[in-house]
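RETRY 2/3 - previous attempt timed out on the joint model. Re-submitting the same 676-residue input unchanged.
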Amino acid sequence: MEYRDELYIDVKPEEFRSKCLELHKKLSSPVMMYFAVDERTEKKSFAVYCAFLDWADKRWVFVKMQLPEGQTRFESISKDVFSAALFEREMKEMFGLEPGGNPDLRRLHLHDEVWPEGFYPLRKDFIPPERAQRSDGAYRFKKVEGEGIFEVPVGPVHAGIIGPGHFRFSAAGEPVISLEARLGFTHRGVEKLFEKMPSAGSDDAVSFSERVSGDSAFAYSTAYCRGIEKIYGLRVPERAQYIRAIFLELERIYNHTNDIGGIAVDVGFTFPNAFASIMKENTLALNEKISGSRYLKGVNEVGGVSRDFGGSERKALLDHLDGISKDFRELKAILGSSISFMDRVDKTGILKKKTAVDLGIVGLAARASGIPMDLRKTFPGVYAEANFNLIREEDGDVLARLNVRLREFEESVRLIREFIRIMAPGDISAASKIEPKPGCGIGYAEGWRGPVLFWIKTDASGRIERCKIVDPSFHNWQGLCFAVLGNIIPDFPLCNKSFDLSYPGNDL
Amino acid sequence: MKNIIKNRILKGIADIPIGRDAKEAEKLGEELKARILKRFGRSFHIREVDTGSCNGCESEIIATTNPIYDIQRFGIDFVASPRHADALLVTGPVSKNMALALRRTYDAMPEPKFVITLGDCALDSGAFKDSYYVAGGVKEVLPVDMHIPGCPPNPLTIIKSLLAFLDT
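RETRY 2/3 succeeded.
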């Protein structure tokens, strides 16, 4: 099976590393996905895929190797490509594959405190342990030692209404010397649960994809549907593509408003937050009005969308955009005119471009550090008709991430207006033509945080054999850990909010 | 800034689509306040813990504190420490990684204490049933006093349910 936007390069295990390094350099792309598939029933061994993004030719390049029968060890690429490191740790705990030469193989999601050795959930012959049990190893945090250095452990339960994660700061006096995030607390076994779905094309599977990361429900269902549509060879009607783009931008609008307010409240400036939360609430109410769900659930289906966009929805949306644009101008003026606010966000939490490139930072945070990366630009689809502008800032600090949000908000409003103007009446779904086919492919969408990626492999009966999900947060949590260095601990919430990363999307 | 505040006072803040809800919230809230006064003295403090939710529930809980619903004016507050809390509000299926943290948060609360679960996942782990890494609904770990259904429940449902809870 060949797709225009995917290229698979089969290599022998001994050539895998050099091929990956070559592509990493040539395409100047971080590792976007890197995962294993248990193919022991058909081919008697594991396969490993590593995906890069080829900006110039607008396609995903996968390097694939089939390990020899019975072998679970392969050569690590993390020492040369840092953005591969977390993926290798994940393969180790989920499949029991050993990336030889990787110095850090601590577990990510399956915590040592509750999960014994030798149980690899994503293997096909996995049987869960009968009871909770510790593993022999213990998670070791990196240690900073020296006179006057102290550690501040925070979490997993935080003070706010927010997801769980453990942060360990090492500080000497005020500035942070090292921050390590230990995540995985909301691990629910999402990828394995996808394999249990009776049918990949069903509404159940789509609605499950909406429940992986609640604030990106629409980006997730879009990415999932696109993956399945590609494998099944379904042509999504143009009108459905426009409707998807409109909702994707609405999701961006409500989340960006939320974060703009959040950044203000984290420096103790509560008024703009109250203001922004009204804007968010109004957008959620609008979502409910035009889609039936405050979080845009139930709109997507494999083949298109389940609800058309009629005259009354159109009017409600346009009226809302007028209202919210006015509010937005006020919000922007409030923030911009407060010197103490600007002083706090300017030059705080800088993520340098070089660091961002090395870590493989994606999405909004990458654009704030000067990396022109946006799937809406690389794979425009209907965005090309609306002349999409990529928003980029150079400084990589909290202010830059705030500015990217402010400018993207305006761009999203403009895009929606354009989409409404251009889109023509027509079909909205090809769902009636669903016919299960075996195959594999990548589905993607530029959510508000960044690219949401689904790599899916289906079998002939319509079930999912493997579903690998990569949330932008998986790359970007590391960015946060570097951005706070040298800042004072009280500025951590501010830096954190400026990234606003997902716990459930990262932990899966 | 002066201009903005003046504008807001003159124009009001509630937008058209939620005007109806805001009024309902007001009405419910007054009842809520009366009951809190009767049963808890002055206020009812909640500590929220996410044990594996998708953050949809968190978003709606936060929405109850926005100026439109503003649950705080009725005497309900979300507090930073379990030591200050009357009730624990739990969202999400219980991931194995969070079972201990949940238990410890509960143990840190002073008596009398209540546990409220919010969202379909917290009841019986919802869409994540049968996962190898989910310890089940919250009731497998803690005694639960009330459940607020929905995926996620909207802010008005949350306010109404809390009202019903304080009624019992």
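Residues 27 and 165 of chain B are 17 Å apart (CA to CA). Closing ticket.
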